[in-house]
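[User] At your convenience, examine this fold.
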Amino acid sequence: LPATGGALIVVLLIIYAMLATQLRSYLQPLAILMAIPLGLAGAILGHLVLGYALSFISIFGMVALAGVAVNASVVLVDLYNRRRDQGMEPVAAAASAATRRFRPIVLTTMTTAMGLTPLLFEKSPQAQFLIPMGVSLGFGILISGFMVIFVTPAVAVIIDDLRGRRAAARHAGGNDAAEAAEV
């Protein structure tokens, strides 16, 4: 398990680095990566609701879930950034991005979850091995899919707010230095 945990950290750092280079931001990838813990919470909830123990195969479902959840967040943050580049205010850009991407995110979430439903109710001995993975992926994508629509835009606005405050502080600090030079 320690080797698996180390590999997970390396993979998350690689994903973060790829997102940071594409978004040209060190903070925005965090808005996207928030989808992963939301999905994991959904997967764990699914195991609790259906009475399945977490297993190694459940972890495979959670890894697949992380990819799907990150994809939904990337699409939403990309549209948010385009709206901001068009001059929209952060809250308006977040609302616009969430509204515009609501249907595609909900449709992919629901079709994936519904596609896994027959596996969850399968009684054959061969399928019993795969059911925990289906629980992880199905429940996790339901929770993360809907939470991404609300949490990701909110985190993106918070990040913009932090950037604005930092820029204002930097600008105010620059003015103090200029005023001190004049005196």
Remarks:
- The radius of gyration is 20 Å.
- Residues 131-182 form the longest helix (52 residues).
- The CA atoms of residues 57 and 78 lie 32 Å apart.
